[in-house]
Amino acid sequence: MERRQLEYFVAVAEERSFTRAAHRERVAQPAVSAQIQRLERTVGQALLHRSAGQVRLTSAGEVLLPHARAALAALRDGQSAVDEVTGLLRGVVSIGTVTAHPVDIARLMAEFNADHPAIEMTVVADTSDVLVDKLADGRLDAAIVSIGVDESPPGLEYQVITDEAIEAAVAPRHVLARRKTLRLAELSDHRLISLPVGTGLRSRLDAACAAAGFRPHIAFEATSPVELVEMARYGLGVAILPQSMARDRTDLHAMHLAPELRGRLVWAWRRDLTSPAARRLCERARGMITSGVVAAPVS
């Protein structure tokens, strides 16, 4: 098996498209198809189901995919280790983030790039559940994710960025606007505004409601806490927000939830992280967080 064949195979598997894979690898589509065919001849099995507008992995492809990713990661780590020994640190570092967080990622990247201009960096945004999965299988080197205060994802190390209560917020004219505290069970009587399934905040909310014996009525969803604030401001329901956002607006009334819900934003990385470039970026990010070079918590 050749490195290029594995790279193209992983790209097609992740993109579910030869066209998108070719664009990602910056080559012509026939080149991707040819290398995949050679790989299939090498392993003696079809790796992809090809049909109009759709590409899916076969059983053999599903089995090969994690090994292909591991092999490519090992090659990258080997090159990085050699470069580090010779003082020519380079490579690619992939970072994931939730949609709203207080870390100045642009500053982090700019300062790191000034010291290590040969290192390429990519940033993607997604829900915490997806980002944790991508960390676990090596598609990301580090990520800003939301986890519960009693949660410790297996195989990951992390540094806490924020740790704060989750509260309810309503418009000033809402029926609950004079309340200071709201029992969690009372949420069952109201339309809620929340982040979508897969986000850390939503996971905390759903788990707490399940423990209280009911399923929350999520009337409106948005991918950003800022959008939740705006919907609550217009009276669409009870927004479930990080405390810092619930109490940062004069046009919203915030309420403590009882029992209290809490969530943490963390900078997470794999415990077995071997890439020198990724390790150095994580060290810089952790130093930045420890020194308080972040804005006020926003999620």
TrEMBL record:
<dbReference type="Pfam" id="PF00126">
    <property type="entry name" value="HTH_1"/>
</dbReference>
<dbReference type="GO" id="GO:0003700">
    <property type="term" value="F:DNA-binding transcription factor activity"/>
</dbReference>
<dbReference type="GO" id="GO:0003677">
    <property type="term" value="F:DNA binding"/>
</dbReference>
<keyword id="KW-0804">Transcription</keyword>
<dbReference type="GO" id="GO:0032993">
    <property type="term" value="C:protein-DNA complex"/>
</dbReference>
<keyword id="KW-0805">Transcription regulation</keyword>
<dbReference type="Pfam" id="PF03466">
    <property type="entry name" value="LysR_substrate"/>
</dbReference>
<dbReference type="InterPro" id="IPR000847">
    <property type="entry name" value="LysR_HTH_N"/>
</dbReference>
<protein>
    <recommendedName>
        <fullName>Probable hydrogen peroxide-inducible genes activator</fullName>
    </recommendedName>
</protein>
<dbReference type="InterPro" id="IPR036390">
    <property type="entry name" value="WH_DNA-bd_sf"/>
</dbReference>
<feature type="domain" description="HTH lysR-type">
    <location>
        <begin position="1"/>
        <end position="58"/>
    </location>
</feature>
<dbReference type="InterPro" id="IPR005119">
    <property type="entry name" value="LysR_subst-bd"/>
</dbReference>
<keyword id="KW-0010">Activator</keyword>
<keyword id="KW-0238">DNA-binding</keyword>
<comment type="function">
    <text>Required for the induction the katG gene for catalase. Involved in the response to hydrogen peroxide.</text>
</comment>
<comment type="similarity">
    <text>Belongs to the LysR transcriptional regulatory family.</text>
</comment>
<dbReference type="InterPro" id="IPR036388">
    <property type="entry name" value="WH-like_DNA-bd_sf"/>
</dbReference>
